[in-house]
Amino acid sequence: MFKELTKVFGETIIYGVTGVVSTLASVFLVPIYTRILTPTEYGVSDLLVTLFAIIAVVSNMGMSSAIFYTYFKAKDEGQKRAVLGTSLIFQTLFPFLISIVVFLLSYRISRVLFGQEGFANLVFISAITLFFNVGSGTPLGVLRAQGNPKKYVTVTMIKLISTILVSITLVVGFRFGLLGVFVGNLLGNLLGYVAGLVAIFPSISLEFSKHWFMELIRFGAPMMPAGLAMWALNSSDRYFLNAFASTADVGIYNVGYRVGTLVVLVTSALQLAYPRFMFSIYHNNPNPKEYFKKINTYFYLLTFTFALALSIFSKEAITVLTGGAFHSAYSVVPLIAFSYVFYGLFNNFGTGVSVTAKTYLSTFAVLIAGGINLVLNYALISRFGMMGAALATFLSFLFLAIAELFFSQRVYPIKFEFKRLITISIVGGSLAYLATLVDFDLVPSLLVKAILLSAFPVLLYLFGFLEENELKKLFQVWGTVKKARFRPKLVWDSIRQEMIS
Hints:
Blueprint: H1 2-33, H2 39-60, H3 63-73, H4 77-104, H5 106-114, H6 120-135, H7 137-145, H8 149-173, H9 178-200, H10 210-220, H11 223-244, H12 247-260, H13 264-284, H14 288-312, H15 314-321, H16 333-349, H17 351-355, H18 360-411, H19 418-436, H20 442-462, H21 468-483, H22 488-500
Helix pairs in contact: 1-8, 1-13, 2-4, 2-6, 2-11, 2-12, 3-4, 3-7, 3-10, 4-6, 4-7, 4-10, 5-6, 6-9, 7-9, 8-9, 11-12, 11-18, 12-16, 13-14, 13-16, 14-16, 14-19, 14-20, 16-18, 19-20, 21-22
């Protein structure tokens, strides 16, 4: 078992490089943008980004997930090439049509969102960006399906680095303001799209197969409503906040939300690496449920620890990262961080519906949670503003994970280690609460909070969280680390050998 788990964690680390760099770059831009853009301008940007996120869901039609199901269902190399070619053709033509429609409606969209046509130019640029953003989904999906994380990271880094460099040059150097942000995003997506096509072109066939198209749609289309509901979970609170408070509040909330979603560093890495191994383990191992339950426990521990660290140090992080107008954003960070821990659980709990190809059950879970989120947004944001938005997100993602577990267990029951999950939650939640009582100057606060965070693994050990075989492996790993003299490459190679043995 440890051999397969090591492969999952190994690819997760490689994919995680993309998430780490992307998220850190996003956070790196926060102190720049919050000192140049006003909260209102920040809010305008966030409202447009969230709008085009929902349009992207429609344009994608679930292809990002469907490509895995059909690729592994294909029986030979010729069929696999046909699957990839069909996906590429569809993901070129359909987003192109959507982008044209949005482009033509740019002035109307600006009037509806902001009560004026002055931001229509940003909508123009976003419509063009949409085509390249959605169109790059197939090349990136192909690289993941083929188990080529290094090329995936390369393509993604080209897109990311070019976006950052152009954006900083235009926003800081030429003082283009919001226009510079959107132009930088456009050029980065264009370069990423081209790099993706170059990376996969030798391995695909430019033929359109009606059979494989129907397979892709059969798996992917039911996921589109789920994607729309997921948009509601992730983003609809901005529009309620804009209506009940102000665009400036949207900008401040977005800064706190962005720091809270640093948890995605972990959850997105697993989400990228896991599908290939999930289907491989399901089809090739006699007892796949044992792997699935262990992976869930370990990744819950990993994501929860990350969220706990963000929660404990949220006030200090926001104070250092942002301009004074954005300092109040720290209050929403803990709720957002733990919301995305539940999102990681949702992905893992959905293993059953994925391997049985009953993705419509995930759609039900997300639709229900999305509907609950809209109700909570209205009820809580109208009374509590930003904190109401954060609380609505937290409760909605918690319900999402529970609903996914309910549906998935009925088609493919897995004995998840709930006692261990509860232990993590109670111990970590208590430490997060204690951290809110710490209110000293910067250095003393950092010291006390570091002690609280360090107590987390100690308390887990004292509460008997670790199993005997896990303790044995940890001692072996620690001995290996010391033997390798803490040199990263030697440490990783040695740990991998220990886990396989």
